[in-house]
Amino acid sequence: MTKRYGQWIGGAEVEPASGEYLICREPGRPDVVCETPAGSRDDVDTAVAAAKAAWDGWRARKPIERGRVLAAIAARLRAESAYLAALEAAQAGKPPGLAPLEIEAAATYFEFYAGLVNHPDGEVIDLGPGMHAYTVREPFGVVAIITPWNAPLNQACRGIAPALAVGNTVVAKPSEFTSATTLELARIATQAGLPDGVLNVLTGDAESVGAPLVEHPDVRKVAFTGSVTAGRAIGRVAAERIIPVTLELGGKGPNIIFADADLAAAVRGSIPAFLANAGQICSAGTRLLVHEDVHDQVVNALVAGLATVEPGVAYGSITTEAQFAKVQSYLRIAEEEGAKLTTGGTVLDRPGWYIAPTVFTEVTNDMRIAREEIFGPVLSVIRFADEDEAVAIANDTPYGLSAGLWTRDLSRAHRVAARLEAGQVYVNEWQHGLVEGPFGGYKQSGVGREKGAEALHHYTQTKFVSIRL
Ligand code: NAD
């Protein structure tokens, strides 16, 4: 029988006020994965009230005690990783090899922040004789964490773990397409000893749950991951309410291969950089900038490399039907714009919404396929003549999330890294620092940082205390 979830509120499953449920199917297949609640404003009110009621108790815990609970959640996530990975793979269309890595990263967030509960400590500020002054970092209260469908549990944990570590309580809203693993996390957290109400999970769509959550007067901070359009709408509400917001939005990552690079390694690394998760990664390297001297060699190696990648192994299905249609529309746009289809460009004849890894060459940076986030397995290859031109093309984008470069010249690596307008720059690798390094965007890719120790500053605010002795 299909599993039917409730909302997770106050440490237990609760029927949605609407009494209605959304059916979650495997992407592009008839198979039903589960049913999740169709949430509403009433559910938001109940969940926020539960989070608010739990706040005093949770923030009053010694940091080390909060850390112990977070560590226990990490252990339970690992103990259930096979089950969670299968569920994640089913709801999001991921290949069996990828989902376990995402569950492991989800557990690592809790492990990492369990060890950092004391990190955002204050400082003593010298005001001169007769005075003692210091700062402390304090939690906001109820934090809303809103996440998309491409790496559901991973992204939920990326926000939830640091938010809880420093004493906030959370109402999380996963994507309506992929809610199951975030609901399972709430169950696991409760079983691991997280007090009731500290983490609540509401499912439902943007209009019925997402917007009311951001508007709720008792929500004191919003951490959002998703599209620029939704980020802008949420930012507007946050501005109206004067609450802080972290926005992790889209990207159009430039991945630069210089002529002096280890070309075999560069091609090997550049394939997963655009293809992992069927390209549905905000930090993907989707614009491959190649020096003209090695352009043909790189493209030939890329095409040869892609000929060996297996669908269902190296990459999975597109997750939603709308996204499947969107990616196909860009295949047509690329052709209309005069880009040269070098490999791929087809829908695969197999269950699921599969698109063959696609490479367009002869792309110029003014084409829509070079400017707009496609969020699919599509790579645009652009030539450059020298370092200045590479940097200019790389930065000629409204986005600024991730960028990368491949070179054997250490001076060039530092020089170019300094000039790239991006929150993350990868040299001779693509996205190794999954949990420990700060992550976020320049320009329209977002505001604030998740991950690393730095995220803790975005889940706390500073209080200055001065005392006359
Ligand atoms: P989306 O913006 O449509 O939705 C994301 C989440 O926000 C969902 O839970 C949705 O229900 C909710 N939502 C949408 N509008 C809302 C509103 N006005 N108020 C409150 N909640 C709202 O994005 P998506 O289609 O689910 O995900 C794909 C996008 O996410 C891509 O653009 C991708 O680049 C981006 N993304 C960014 C990162 C990052 O860390 N920078 C990571 C993954 C995905």
TrEMBL record:
Recorded superkingdom: Bacteria
Pfam families associated with the record: Aldedh
Keyword Repressor: no
Annotated ranges, domain Aldehyde dehydrogenase: 20-465
GO MF terms, alphabetically ordered: oxidoreductase activity, acting on the aldehyde or oxo group of donors, NAD or NADP as acceptor
TM regions (residue ranges): none
Keyword Oxidoreductase recorded: yes
Keywords recorded for this protein, A-Z: Oxidoreductase
Family the entry assigns: Belongs to the aldehyde dehydrogenase family.
Protein name: Aldehyde dehydrogenase
Annotated organism of origin: Planotetraspora thailandica
